[in-house]
Amino acid sequence: MEIFFIVIGAIILLFSILLLLPVKIDFAYDGEVFFKVKYICFTLIDSEEKEKKTKKTSKKKKKKDASQTKESTNKQKNITDTIKYYGNMIQLALKQLRWLISFIKIRKFVFDLTVATDNAASTAIEYGEMCAVVYPIISFVQTNTNFKLKTDDINIRPDFDNSDSKLKASVLVKAKLIICLIAIVRLFWDYTKKQRKESEKNE
Questions:
Q1: Is the dihedral of CA 101, 107, 40, 34 positive or negative?
Q2: What is the rounded CA–CA span in Å between residue 178 and residue 173?
Q3: CA–CA separation, 191 vs 57, rounded Å?
Q4: How many CA atoms lie within 13 A of 137 on its CB side?
Q5: pLDDT digits (tens, 9 = 90+) for 105-132
Q6: How far apart are CA 175 and CA 51, in angstroms?
Q7: How many CA atoms lie within 13 A of 81 on its CB side?
Q8: Are strands 166-176 and 22-30 parallel, antiparallel or unpaired?
Q9: Burial class of residue 153 (count of CB atoms within 10 Å of its CB; 0-12, 13-18, 19+)
Q10: How many Å from the N-terminal Cα to the C-terminal Cα in the chain?
Q11: What angle do CA 152, 136, 97 make, to 5 degrees?
Q12: Residue 49 to residues 54, 55, 56, 80: CA-CA distances in angstroms?
């Protein structure tokens, strides 16, 4: 019987230690999205490795056809729309997880955005909208964590001479596994709750 309790105690201790070990999330964007998720010394997700494997297995058409070029151009032009969409989602998530934010450590943050459109008036409007989306998020994170930004870490500027917006961004986040699990459960709960309310309204 004693051995049984020792084994159970050892399993509980092991799981407790595993829950307190950090998860690292490394995200970067420079024309393409790259992200890596590491837990202890294990790489759980690596988008670069996945891309390399895909390139090896599919050695077809090395030429870029017109549709691919068009698609990449559209993606470039939609950078500001994407920032607005995900920026609003991040703002909502941060407000819902306010009490968890202090347990998250940000080790690196770079955000370099050049706002450009077809005309000067639109560029000025887009620039203002980008500032209105990005800076409140940065301010919220700085207020609720020990993360301190350097002056050259974030840069949003208008470009009146070009028509395509450009973005370079990277962030490295560390959090204990238990914090990540609580955050996922909380966000999933809030999402299902919201979906339930919307379905009740539609009925």
A1: positive
A2: 14
A3: 37
A4: 19
A5: 888 889 999 999 888 999 999 999 999 9
A6: 26
A7: 7
A8: antiparallel
A9: middle
A10: 57
A11: 115
A12: 9, 10, 11, 28
73, two tokens: 């151009």
Q: What is the pLDDT of residues 1-43, one digit of tens each?
A: 778 888 888 999 999 999 999 999 999 998 888 989 999 888 8
Amino acid at 161: D
Query: From CA 11, how far away is CA 4, in angstroms rounded?
Result: 11
What is the spatial distance between Cα 85 and Cα 134, in angstroms, rounded to a whole number?
11
- C-alpha distance from residue 127 to each of 80, 114, 130, 134, 182 (Å): 9, 9, 5, 11, 35
Side chain identity at 77, as an amino acid letter? K
Lookup: tokens for 129: 């909208």
Tokens of 52: 């390399």
Distance CA 157, CA 134 (A): 12
- 75 membership: H or E segment, kind and range: helix 66-77
In this structure, the number of other CB atoms found within 10 A of the CB of residue 129 comes to 15
Tell me the whole-structure pTM to 2 decimals. Answer: 0.72
User: 48: which 2 tokens?
Assistant: 């670069």
